[in-house]
Write a structure and sequence with these properties.
Elements (H helix, E strand, L loop, with lengths): L1 H76 L3 H22 L7 H28 L2 H75 L3 H11 L14 H40 L3 E6 L4 E4 L1 H7 L3 H4 L4 H5 L2 H8 L9 E7 L5 E13 L2 E11 L1 H38 L6 H32 L7 E3 L1 H11 L1 H6 L3 E5 L8 E3 L1 H18 L7 E9 L2 E8 L33 H11 L4 E5 L5 E9 L4
Parallel strand pairs: 7-9
Antiparallel strand pairs: 1-2, 1-5, 3-4, 4-5, 6-8, 8-12, 9-10, 10-12, 11-12
Helix pairs in contact: 1-2, 1-4, 2-3, 3-4, 11-12, 12-16, 13-15, 15-16
């Protein structure tokens, strides 16, 4: 009894010794890793603290001065105090960020750059004061010259210096980043060396100790291998009552019970297998079952038909050999990678060379929460694919196909309204007029859709020529002469009535843009006979900026970002129900973009709207 206790104590002691030694090694490695992580964290903090503030300040200065430049452009087009106030607000923001940058000098040559920024911006401010006086005095021509020849060059020079400040700090961050990387590499190497050394020592000691502990069970292992091959009649002699002796006794009990269960379960397993195979065969969808090595172990009739195979010929072959479909094989191979969908759609050609579409779904076969195989389910979705294609074809051709019959309807209604004007009652004639109006609205929608599709696809090339933008604006205004007179709208044209061909573009398409913008303004100008419509032309370098302004209801802030999207109504009011397709501004945007220009809008709800667009200035060519 004393000998048994000594053996038990000896085994327990040795195991605890191994555990204690491994724990000590882990503590040493973790402590060294934590130390290196702290050092690396300090390096990263230095990178962020040293240069981030300067980069942020430079970016804010750049944003402020660009906004100021925008306000100067707006002042040339619109005389308003709001632009002047916003210019000064951005000046305050600029100086605040300049102060932050000047107080965070960390790089060589950074102080010189900051001083040059201050010097250039002071000059910029002085020129602006001169520019504002001319604007206030109404001398727009002089103001334009100051902007183009004095302010704009200094603006670009200041931007360059601000970007140089950003570059200097970014390079500083890169240098510190490289230092941090070097420190990280050193930490990795030192940690790796310590880990390798510690693991090597640990492995040597563990192997020595484990060999002494496990020698008594080597024979037991040999017998277990025989049992794993199906020999359940094995028995081993037991020696002693220690842990090993108890294990040997339990092993003999286990083999005895396994031998008994084997006889009972063989018939049961056969029956269950037959049931499962029968169920699988009756399923209309294709099913392929794979083992853990992705080898085929079961195929139902539907799958045989899909891939034109026979189960007896393909058992234990890989799924890629069976299906001959690379996309399906890749999908199955990546099924357990952790980054996948649980289904894909594939196409397979049948014997009659028809293309069929299948949705492939995968599911793991689990036993005790461990995957032991994979089930592939193939659902035929050919009919759904065909329906989707029909819908796509319909949508693609609907606009084209509807145009011809709609034209016939409109012509027929036009003839009926003329022929039956005095031959039918007022109610019947009113119905004809409603049909005529709705047909016209539908025709406009179809035409807009077709025009937009042509512009977007490049099927409607631009016919570029030089023309007078002032003459074109006057021509478009003349289209609305009667409406303007009825509403008593004051039209202001802020440009010279010159026939000089000063811009280039497709005159018909630019006519359409102006017509749309002016039409939109007239729709929403107040009905109190105090409406104003202002159209301006401004020459700014190589750009000619055209603006259309009104004092209407304005556009809400939440709608501004989406104003040029398809089917967007420009704005709504309580006393008007807006009509239109919602495609006008989308078409305008595509036209101007095709000319290489820009189009944008400024608006405040209740205070009117201004649309701007640019064309190439031929005076500078």
């Amino acid at each position: 009894m004393k000998i048994v206790n000594i053996i038990k104590k000896s085994i327990r002691y040795k195991l605890l010794s191994v555990f204690a030694f491994v724990t000590a090694v882990l503590i040493i490695i973790c402590s060294w890793a934590v130390y290196n992580f702290n050092m690396l964290s300090k390096s990263i903090d230095n990178i962020m603290i040293s240069n981030y503030l300067s980069i942020e300040a430079a970016q804010n200065m750049l944003t402020s001065i660009e906004r100021q430049d925008s306000k100067e452009l707006s002042m040339l087009l619109l005389d308003n105090k709001q632009n002047m106030e916003e210019f000064r607000e951005n000046s305050s923001i600029f100086f605040l960020n300049y102060k932050n940058a000047s107080e965070n000098i960390t790089e060589n040559n950074e102080e010189k750059i900051v001083k040059e920024i201050k010097y250039n911006y002071d000059q910029y401010q002085a020129l602006y004061e001169k520019f504002e006086k001319e604007i206030t005095a109404g001398n727009k021509d002089t103001a334009e010259e100051i902007y183009a020849y004095e302010i704009l060059p200094l603006f670009e020079k200041t931007k360059t210096k601000i970007k140089e400040l950003q570059t200097v700090n970014q390079e500083g961050m890169l240098i510190r980043k490289n230092k941090a990387k070097k420190a990280s590499d050193n930490a990795v190497i030192s940690t790796l060396l310590i880990s390798v050394f510690s693991i090597a020592i640990t492995l040597i000691l563990v192997i020595l100790l484990i060999n002494k502990i496990l020698e008594p069970i080597y024979e037991l292992i040999k017998q277990i291998k025989k049992v794993s091959k199906g020999n359940y009649k094995i028995k081993i002699a037991t020696e002693g009552t220690d842990e090993i002796g108890q294990l040997e006794t339990e092993f003999n009990n286990m083999t005895k019970k396994l031998s008994e269960y084997e006889l009972m379960n063989i018939d049961k397993l056969k029956n269950e297998k037959q049931k499962a195979e029968s169920i699988v065969e009756t399923i209309n969808d294709g099913i392929i079952v794979l083992d853990n090595d992705k080898k085929v172990i079961l195929v139902n009739r539907a799958a045989e038909k899909i891939f034109d195979i026979s189960e007896k010929d393909i058992l234990n072959l890989s799924v890629s050999e069976v299906t001959n479909n690379q996309r399906l094989s890749d999908f199955i191979s990546n099924f357990n990678s952790g980054n996948f969908r649980n289904y894909i759609d594939i196409s397979i050609e049948d014997k009659k060379r028809r293309i069929n579409y299948y949705r492939v779904l995968l599911s793991s076969i689990l036993r005790h929460d461990e995957a032991i195989g994979t089930v592939i389910l193939l659902q035929n979705i050919t009919k759904f694919k065909e329906l989707d294609q029909m819908k796509s074809d319909f949508l693609a051709t609907a606009s084209h196909e509807l145009k011809t019959p709609l034209t016939s309807i409109i012509m027929s209604i036009d003839i009926l309204t003329k022929e039956l004007k005095n031959k039918v009652g007022s109610d019947e004639y009113e119905l004809l007029e409603i049909i005529e109006e709705d047909s016209g609205r539908l025709k406009k929608l179809i035409n807009d859709l077709l025009d937009l599709e042509k512009i977007e696809s490049g099927k409607d090339p631009l016919v570029i020529s030089r023309f007078s933008i002032a003459a074109l604006i006057n021509k478009v205004i003349e289209k609305f002469r009667i409406q303007i007179k009825e509403l008593n709208i004051k039209v202001i044209t802020d440009f010279e009535n010159s026939t000089e061909e000063n811009v280039s573009g497709d005159i018909e398409k630019i006519d359409r843009v102006l017509t749309n913008l002016i039409s939109n303004s007239l729709k929403f100008i107040p009905l109190d006979r105090a409406g104003k419509l202002k159209i301006s032309i401004a020459e700014l370098g190589e750009r000619m900026v055209i603006s259309v302004s009104d004092n209407g209801v304005g556009i809400s802030e939440d709608k501004l970002p989406h104003i040029f999207e398809k089917f967007q109504k420009i704005r709504e009011s309580d006393d008007k129900i807006q009509k239109g397709t919602g495609l006008g501004l989308a078409i305008c945007k595509q036209i101007i973009n095709a000319h290489g220009g820009d189009i944008w809008v400024e608006s405040k709800e209740g205070a009117g709207t201004t649309f701007y667009f640019t064309l190439k200035n031929e005076k500078k060519s």
